[in-house]
Amino acid sequence: MEDYYGSYVLVAVLFGIGVAIVAGALTINRLLRPTRPTAEKLTTYECGVDPVGDGWAQSQVRYYVFTYLYVVFAVDAVFLFPWATVFDAPGYGVTTLVEMFVFLGFIALGILYAWRKRVLSWT
């Protein structure tokens, strides 16, 4: 049982060392850097172009929905590839097939909901 907890202690010690290294590097950087703020340095930088007008721009919610749909399909792909490798292993056939169809059913319900709300139409 001591080996079991010893591995957790080792992970905690390594995590602490990592945090100490990062904190030390940031502290040393803050102490050694030159600080000469000017008005020109404090202005907003936009790819070499001087900022003009208000910094706020309204964007349509539709773009966020397409982003969410992309994430859904990406997660779907991430789960499909390992499933395909396990499906071929002996003893997992019917169980993994049912689980994947349940998962794909949830994905299909989400897409059907988005389609019914007319989110998927691009105008």
Automatic annotation (TrEMBL):
It catalyses: a quinone + NADH + 5 H(+)(in) = a quinol + NAD(+) + 4 H(+)(out). It is found in: Cell membrane; Membrane. Keywords: Membrane, NAD, Quinone, Transmembrane, Transmembrane helix, Transport. Its EC number is 7.1.1.-. The keyword DNA repair does not apply. The chain crosses the membrane at residues 6-28, 63-86, 92-115. It is a multi-pass membrane protein. Gene3D superfamilies: NADH:ubiquinone/plastoquinone oxidoreductase, chain 3. It comes from the Bacteria. Pfam families: Oxidored_q4. NDH-1 shuttles electrons from NADH, via FMN and iron-sulfur (Fe-S) centers, to quinones in the respiratory chain. Belongs to the complex I subunit 3 family. PANTHER family: NADH-UBIQUINONE OXIDOREDUCTASE CHAIN 3 (PTHR11058:SF9). This is NADH-quinone oxidoreductase subunit. It comes from Nonomuraea spiralis. The lineage of its organism: Bacteria, Bacillati, Actinomycetota, Actinomycetes, Streptosporangiales.
